[in-house]
Specification:
alpha/beta; 3-stranded antiparallel β-sheet; 47% helix
Length: 359
Amino acid sequence: MSKSFAAALASTSKRRYRNRTPGASRLFFLIVCAQIQTASVVRAQTPSEFFSGKTIRIINWSEAGGEYDLHGRLIAKYLGQFIPGAPNVVQQNMPGGGGITAANYLYNAAPRDGATLAVVNNSLPLFQALGGDTVRYDAAKLNWIGAISQIVDLLTVWHSAPVKSFHDLLTSEMIMGTTGKGNTSYMTPVAMNALLGTKIKVLIGYAGGGDVNLAIERGEIMGRLNTWSGMKATKPEWIADNKINILVQSGLDSMRELKGVPLLVDLAKNEDDRAIFRIFGATGALSRPLVAPPDVPGDRLAALDTAFAAMVKDPRFNADADKLQIDVRPIYQPRMRELADGILQTAKPLIDRLKRIIE
């Protein structure tokens, strides 16, 4: 504290508290000085000083056992080792509303200091663009950090179902399940019905992907929209035992492992239809995103970005990911921001058309 500032503060104290005892005035002066010094220290904290001794929470929108949950738990296990100050990292599941509950919490209630992150539903930008009435977040202001693996959504059907290929969907009904209307696992098949003439019936209300898988195995439904990485991680036996047929890919690009499976954008009948299917592809490309709320101090956010990039290159992390059947093909903040902004900035006539289809 400069002498002139201290003198001015002492002078003010004397004028305001001339009737108090010298001891009281001195105590007031010392308290104010201590508060100013404390505030200065807090403002000057480095990321290492801030994160040291902290516990970082990762809010995960899904229930335990699904692909989002596996990604979140793997991140929680390793991320803290690469953050300055080596904080502890824990995951907290917050299912509900197809991911809207967790997103609204992160945006409106969670501290914006870098100690609360979230693995969110990749459909958040799309649901916002469509004007969902439960949206209380702005995906354009979220801080996208990264995702472990770039994914492609696949429409899969149980091996005993009468539907065996995409062309069968044009003549036979397929019953599939999903959590709710606020994600591509509902929107994609509904759009396929409207734009391609498929006959898909979507049952909503499942708590998460694990419950959908159980319903498929019990014969309650025929299939679901899933990811190749998700099936390898949560149901590898389905692939090994040929328990599923893959009908179509809903990505921006075809996967090498799935040659012969049609790409949804290639099935579109015109450019407007292709544009709608590209929205779903961009949504899938966001993968299982780790995000921070708005207004996190820039140096802490940079530390988190750097930590994520270092984590996905770590041999121990990759060995654990391999055991979990998770393909490590990371996507980072710049590309995620590009994809999210592209969805949010979709031309209004196209969004209005998609809304009519979904509704």
